[in-house]
Design goal:
128 residues, 3 helices, five-stranded antiparallel β-sheet
């Protein structure tokens, strides 16, 4: 069994935002040269999240609006961390024939609930 690991940093210039990580992760899968396996994409911060979602700005803006409404249930200093807890920090996907198993409108999306600084993303791939 082979393994591959890569860290990289992202920076959302606004207080909150999102970005598509799909191409970056696909590049790692191809560099790993693993035909069958699993890929875990994680944010290393308690104020950010990695999810699968459509890469549609209107929908992603809607997600942020929903998350922010939900966060009003918490006191201000806890809101970004609460959103991290609700959305999660890791997405795990299978790899088949050297490609990620994603649905037709599924993308790997990074959400930052406390932006304006660099944060780390970790990609770990295991397989054959």
């Amino acid at each position: 069994m082979k393994s591959y690991h890569q860290n990289f940093t992202v920076n959302i210039p606004a207080e909150q935002g999102y970005m598509d990580l799909t191409d970056d992760v696909l590049g790692c899968v191809r560099s790993a040269n693993i035909r069958t396996g699993i890929c875990a994409i994680s944010t290393m911060h308690t104020t950010a999240a990695v999810v699968t979602a459509p890469n549609d700005p209107e929908m992603l803006d809607g997600y942020l609006k929903f998350y922010n409404k939900l966060a009003t249930l918490a006191e201000e200093p806890l809101r970004p961390a609460l959103l991290h807890q609700v959305t999660g920090n890791t997405v795990t996907l299978t790899i088949e024939d050297g490609e990620l198993n994603l649905g037709l409108s599924q993308y790997i999306i990074y959400f930052d609930f406390d932006g304006q600084r660099e944060k780390s993303i970790s990609i770990d791939i295991l397989g054959e």
